[in-house]
Amino acid sequence: MSIPPNPALTAALVAQALxxxxxxxxxxxxxxxxxxxxxxxAIGASSIPRDQLFLQTKFTFLDGQDQRLPYDPRAPLGxxxxxxxxxxxxxxxxxxxxxxxxxxxxxxxxxxxxxxEAWRAMEKLVEQGGVRVLGVSNVTAQQITELxxxxxxxxxYVQNRCYARTAWDQLARNxxxxxxxxxxxxxxxxxxxxxxAHRGVADIAKRYAKTPSQIVFRFAQQIGMLPLTGTTKVDxxxxxxxxxxxxxxxxxxxxxxxxx
Length: 260
Fold this sequence. Notes:
Structural class: alpha/beta
Number of helices: 11
Low-confidence stretches: none
Radius of gyration: 18 Å
CATH superfamily of the largest domain: NADP-dependent oxidoreductase domain
Number of domains: 2
Shape: globular
Strand order of the largest sheet: 1-2-3-4-5-6-7
């Protein structure tokens, strides 16, 4: 589950998500859009053992931050990664991260020197035992290919906003499949409202006694995605988890795929 940034709501929403059955949480050390410390507050107040949780956060370059920085902007980039990591551990109240994600490359095309430097610093955290696996977000198929070729510690996750109009990010997903990388899709609902409103998708939902949102999430699972959700409604949280008791047919998958 990906958690929204509202300071007044984040801790309560995390608690509700954990109560609904979620055990995976995606956040970021980027106060501009996330509230990582409130995620940690909810985790600390829960009785769920650490080894039953999957905690994923992100290192965000300076251009993606506001004035509330988790590192010294004057420090070398590798030190910024280390400082952000230490801050994340403190925020979340844990001693290790399950996944640390590079929160988008430093440039739109290809990878630059800053991306290489940040990834090497992230690899060091894996080597030291503070991080289990690495990932990258907001990337093109070309950038994934370049990262796989460069990395000593290969990315386990790619996290992208997933649009139906680009065949559900097919180019990036193809590269992920080629290299055994798990594709995490976000904004599956908000970026694809035309799919939710599609008559054929509504008919499928009625057939299975599910919601159109559940159909989209099940579709994502069946084509090899790990769908992320950021809902703020408890009933939607429960619905989002209740998608593994049915399977879409090949024709139904094709209809959803074409609905965008």
